[in-house]
Amino acid sequence: MRVSQPVIASEQKVSQQLSTFRRFLQYFRPYRRELPIAFLCILIGAASQAFGPFFIGWSIDHLIAQGNQQGLLLLLGLLAGIYFAGVFAIRAQILRIGSIMQRLLAQLRQDIFTKIQSLPLSFFDRSEAGDLMSRLLNDVNTVNQAFGQTVAQMLGNLFSLVGIVIAMLFINLQLGLLSNLAVPLMIFTTGLFARWARARFRVTRQTIGELSAKLEEDIGSVREAQAFNRVSLNIAEFDALNAANRDANVQAVAITAAFLPSIDFLNTMATAGVLAYGGYLAVTGAATVGVVTSFLLYVQQFFRPIQILSQFYTQAQSAFAGLERIFQLLDEPAQLKDVPNAALMPPLQGEVTFEAVEFGYHANQLVLRGINLRAAPGEMIALVGQTGAGKSTIINLILRFYDVSRGAVKIDGVDVRSVTQASLRRQIGIVLQDNILFSGTVAENIAFGDPQASQADIEAAAQAANVHEFIISLPQGYATQLGERGAPLSQGQRQLISIARAVLIDPRILILDEATSSIDTRTEALVQTAIARLLKNRTSFVIAHRLSTVTQADRVLVIQQGEIVEQGTHAELIAKQGVYANFYALQLGAPVPALG
Prior knowledge:
six-stranded mixed β-sheet
């Protein structure tokens, strides 16, 4: 028998949702000793809900009808005790499960953040920061709204429902069966609305991620948007994404809004059925007035848990959509892993060797081809070439942000894949063209690579980077708080602090990515002096866009289309009158004669 595609798709969605739910349940394992106490409170609360109507109906038939005031007072005291115990138990269960849920969700956020920090750079090449923030904040918050506040209430109502059904069937089987006729209709209605809601809520989670990514991008590029007169276009693009998110939420809310009245209608019909048939039984003597009264109370209690459970189930669709996105992120392959029993990188001498290295960010698309080079300890290597030639890729392989496709990268004869990444990167310093500073004090930013550094070490690093005098002129000196990305410091001041950061960790290998670009002439002189101190007795790789900054390099490597096409000193390459000489001439705006 051939199964239709919609049926297969529906089964796959149910299977995926069950898998998501089972995985979410694993987060409860650390709290398995606390859960029995919470469940005991739930059972006490559910029992209090089930006993109340029974005793009220019983009192009508056996106490009120017979004028037994003393017995009625005793029963009222018993009911008060039952309800007091129920209120106490419900409060305890909400506090206990609420506490568990908040700790669980905090762990979920921690797992997401830890995962993001461990993902390879290739993941961020294809992902948007705003969408990742949405998963960490919005999706977890959606799970919190669905489970964090209502899971205790949901469990309590589930047990209450079971207790009420048992009590109804025990008191009067016929009325009990009549009352339960509405349950299949409610299950069908809930499943129908939940299927619609799940699809719409999945769209809402996707659109809020896109909206967050757009917002993060546009806030970070306000200056460029104003400079290039893109403000109106950015507003229009944001408006389109905002409208898509609005429409998705409106459709989801419309489904929820139609769901609750449907349940209320079934509730009313069931109440009317019990009242009509129960009244008939009472008139004919087949049931007492007390039994009918108990059933009317039970019907009201019976449908309240169903309404809450149905509403929770509908809300849970949004949470499951968020959980699917969260677990999809958590399932991303982690960063390059250390090999089993990876050794610690010994103290570096600074020799770097590339042995027939090939590498591609994508399969069958090489970025580097047959790279062979050896940098002796203390040697300054300059990497020049057009954008996309492979210069930054060479640097990434030294730091082992990626693993080579073929060949090997070795430092002091040790393959970088055989040692732990932390012990390797701890001995390599890096100063980028656009260094990132963080919200915090100036001292904290300098000590970013060594948070345990003393104040004396921090100040010594700042002096070596020619930035100490500037720092002590700030209102709070080294304790001055910086804003996001180092605001309000200038580009040059941020660059000097980043150099101090590199000085502090005292690396044996140093990587510079055009550290003097985008700064004024006066600051450039300070930066050049600081870099000269930093380069002394260290192996260094300098990515150079302005060739005038690498004339003192021990060796210049010219990279074209992933290959080393020329190498030598500045003078040797100028004399060769090849690719490097042409680059140099283009930057000078005039032919460069061969050096004699």
